[in-house]
Design goal:
This protein has 775 residues and is of the alpha/beta class. It folds into four domains: 181 residues, 3-Layer(aba) Sandwich (Rossmann fold), CATH 3.40.50.720; 228 residues, N-(1-d-carboxylethyl)-l-norvaline Dehydrogenase, domain 2; 184 residues, 2-enoyl-CoA Hydratase, Chain A, domain 1 (Alpha-Beta Complex); 78 residues, no CATH class. It is built from 32 helices and 25 strands. Helix 7 crosses helix 16, helix 23 packs antiparallel against helix 31 and helix 29 packs antiparallel against helix 30. The radius of gyration is 28 Å and the shape is globular. The relative contact order is 0.06.
Length: 775
């Protein structure tokens, strides 16, 4: 990586967020802003921004210690520091004169060959560099991040006519590998790709909701999961983004686009939105927006605004037949005659045809447009993938039947059959010439979805599949609902271990779902408990323990490659792997106490072993027990892979991968490296645990929490069972405790707790609400 130090000028929400994410990549970054209006501290603006970053939710830093990589300063005293920077990001106000004045100062201070970029989303690159030295233009690009920079994966890059190819390659590589972004090259047009289409979609949806008399709840439930959009829907998204941002984006886009652009027809000013903004109802960052949360003596009430009256009322549960019909597919939604179906059709007809109209104006190909909308707006499918889902020919025919324009690109897809096709195991997309070309992945990217197009699974059942990913490595993929683990999952893991032993060099455990695994299928446990099938439950616990032990001591390397949630039994899978290469946004935790049980597939004994020999330094018997007890009893979940290392869910030697697209390739390489080094399974640990004395100390601490109102009566019961496991049962400091002895204690504690009515109430509540019950 050639970028060793960076600078961000502009410590607002976006600028400071970009600085935080560069720090997440381990790169020192200088954060500069203007002098404060008053006060002796000349760095107050940048220092205040860093403080806000540390206090913000969701957390901009993957670990708080990353804040130490940011050096605050000001643009009057510290521009000379730019001479040491390889990349300088400008993120100041969207004013051309202000930006160009800053660029001239940067040019006087920066070192030769450093890359300068702007985070602008409204000003064309050609205007930004107009009148500036050619040496500056050669090193200049636009790098448009999406807010919040840590979490939104899209990075749009715009290149000028004079920009050096080496500068572009450097930023694209850093954005991809170091920052984990999905880098999409855009043409120098208003709004680039994602905002050009996304803002059109938002304007179309709001206008259609008003015209068709939908409530905000009805609009959001239609324009959400049924069309593959996040559950915020449209009005919830506006609240999340900030209502005050929308008028500025709209005015900028409308001013930059020609008068005959379809965007000019769908945009409309809304007096209600103006009033909300004027009164401080700017969305979640303000007093509320289209939704607000009110507090009273009776508790909290979520309210929604009435689009007709402009008054708030309690939020209602929206029910539309079209949403139910959408279970059969998106076409069933847009063909439904109720107002939800009419709303969905109008918004999709306008938005998707607009995407087809402007795609090759804003990007080199339609695949880039789809990728930008998936990564920038978190759509499940891009617009061309949506049209294929509806049927390109059907979509074009319905537009024509309604006297709407059919864009040439859509007409070509209707004639060819689709925008995408699979040919000889390769995904291809339609070009402007009407022919198909291969979708080429960047070097170093390996996707399981691509492998699945050209092969059949080595083994498969309802919950999991085993795939050959080449070079003697197999990949176990979970694919149950939410990747919850059950008897089928365990059976396929056992079968995979046997197959790999005779046929492959190593095993990777990975999937491309939103979440690696939410843990064991607690619904199955609740069913069995309600009919008193205690032997069935105990057998499931024993199966998990024996299967995970076989995973840990397999004679070949096993590498976990998680992303998203890895909870409970999903976390325990990873605890038993030889190594883990985790996506940076991996959220790991042993959360069983939240449903009234304890980890029983080896999670307790693995945490004891890790804390007993933290980073290779033996400790006394009580600290590992206390650390494990605190982590497990409080159901701690890491907010990043970096935090997972601090909690020892990941070991110091486990890897963190910033790019999700590179996760499988990295895990495969780790597995091959371990195999080539003559991998041997680990030596079973011998634990020294405190027994009754340590157990009493843990219980005393829990009693104090209960007395202080920080723990509930059933928390005390669960914590007592956990203390029995972690203290080693009936042992003392003179004895060693084996892994098998601890897993026996796990199983006994689990079976005792699962018979408790309070535990069953917790499980049932979690299944119904997705939230823990505090009983």
């Amino acid at each position: 990586m050639s970028i060793k130090q960076a600078a961000v000028i502009g410590a607002g929400v976006m600028g400071s967020g970009i600085a935080a994410h560069i720090a997440n990549a381990g790169v020192p970054v200088i954060l500069l802003d203007i002098l404060p209006r008053e006060g002796a501290n000349r760095n107050a603006v940048a220092e205040g921004a860093i403080k806000r970053l540390l206090d913000s939710e969701p957390a901009p830093f993957m670990r708080k210690a990353n804040a130490s990589l940011i050096t605050p300063g000001n643009t009057e005293d510290h521009l000379a520091l730019l001479a040491d920077c390889d990349w300088i990001v400008e993120a100041v106000i969207e004013n051309l004169e202000v930006k160009q004045a800053l660029y001239r100062k940067i040019e006087a201070q920066r070192k030769k060959g450093s890359v300068v970029s702007s985070n602008t989303s409204t000003i064309p690159l050609g205007r930004l560099v107009e009148g500036l030295p050619e040496s500056f233009a050669r090193d200049f690009v636009i790098t448009h991040f999406f807010n919040p920079p840590r979490y939104m994966r899209l990075l749009e890059i715009v290149v000028g006519a004079k920009t050096r190819p080496e500068a572009v390659k450097e930023i694209e590589s850093f954005g991809d590998v170091a920052l984990g972004k999905g880098v999409v090259r855009c043409k120098d047009t208003p709004g680039f790709i994602a905002n050009r289409i996304g803002v059109f979609w938002m304007q179309s949806a709001v206008t259609a909701a008003v015209d068709l008399d939908l409530s905000v709840e009805e609009a959001d439930i239609v324009m959400g999961a049924p069309v593959g959009v996040p559950k915020t829907g449209i009005f919830g998204l506006l609240d999340l983004a900030g209502l005050d941002l929308q008028p500025h984006v709209d005015a900028s886009l409308a001013g930059a686009l020609p008068k005959d652009d379809p965007y000019q027809r769908v945009r409309r000013e809304f007096p209600l939105m103006k009033r909300l903004i004027a009164e401080g109802y700017t969305g979640r960052k303000g007093k509320g927006g289209f939704y607000r949360l009110t507090r009273s003596e009776g508790g909290r009430t979520l309210e929604a605004i009435d689009l007709k009256t402009g008054e708030y009322r309690p939020k209602r549960t929206a029910r539309l037949e079209s949403v139910e019909a959408a279970r059969a597919g998106m076409r069933a939604l847009v063909e439904h005659p109720d107002k939800g179906g009419r709303f969905a059709w109008r918004v999709l007809a306008e938005t998707l045809s607009y995407a087809a109209l402007v795609a090759l104006e804003v990007a080199d190909d339609l695949a880039a447009v789809d990728r930008a909308m998936r990564l920038g707006f978190a759509w499940k499918r891009g617009p061309f993938e949506m049209m294929d889902k509806l049927g390109a020919a059907w979509f074009a025919e319905r537009l024509a039947a309604e006297k709407r324009d059919v864009p040439p690109l859509l007409a070509a897809a209707a004639k060819a059959g689709a925008f995408y096709r699979v040919q000889d195991g390769r995904t291809q997309y339609l070009t402007a010439k009407g022919s198909y070309t291969d979708l080429v992945r960047p070097e170093g990217v390996l996707l399981l979805s691509d492998i699945k197009l050209k092969s059949q699974p080595v083994a498969k059942n309802a919950a999991a599949s085993l795939w050959d990913i080449g070079d003697g490595v197999a990949c176990l993929e979970f694919h149950s609902k939410m990747n919850a683990l059950d008897t089928d999952s365990l059976a396929m893991l056992r079968q995979s271990l046997e197959i790999v032993k005779t046929t492959f060099k190593a095993l990777v455990i990975h999937n491309e779902a939103d979440n690696f695994s939410v843990g064991a299928n607690i619904g199955l446990a609740l069913f069995a408990a309600n009919v008193a099938l205690w032997p069935m439950i105990e057998d499931l616990v024993a199966q998990g323990q024996s299967t995970y032990k076989a995973l840990k001591y397999a004679p070949f390397p096993t590498v976990g490659a998680p992303a998203g949630l890895a909870l409970g039994g999903g976390c325990e899978v990873l605890l038993h792997c030889s190594a883990v290469e985790a996506h940076a946004e991996t959220y790991m935790g042993l959360v069983e106490t939240g449903v009234g049980i304890v980890p029983a597939w080896g999670g307790c004994k693995e945490m004891l072993a890790r804390w007993s020999v933290r980073e290779g330094r033996p400790g006394g018997p009580m600290p590992p027990v206390v650390q494990s007890f605190e982590t497990i009893s409080m159901a701690k979940v890491s907010r990043s892979a970096a935090e997972a290392q601090e909690l020892l869910f990941l070991r110091p030697g486990d890897g963190v991968v910033m790019s999700r697209d590179r996760l499988l390739a990295t895990a495969k390489k780790r597995a091959l490296d371990l195999a080539a080094a003559g991998y041997k399974p680990p030596t079973p640990p011998e634990l020294r645990l405190p027994g009754a004395g340590g157990r009493a100390a843990l219980k005393l601490a829990v009693d104090n929490f209960v007395l202080a109102g920080k723990a509930t009566p059933h928390d005390r019961v669960v914590a007592g069972a956990l203390a029995q496991v972690l203290s080693g049962g009936e042992t003392d400091l003179t004895l060693t405790v084996s892994e098998d002895a601890v897993t026996t204690l796990e199983r006994e504690a689990f079976m005792g707790l699962v018979r408790q009515p309070a535990t069953l109430a917790r499980i049932e509540h979690m299944l119904e609400t997705g939230k823990p019950l505090r009983n």
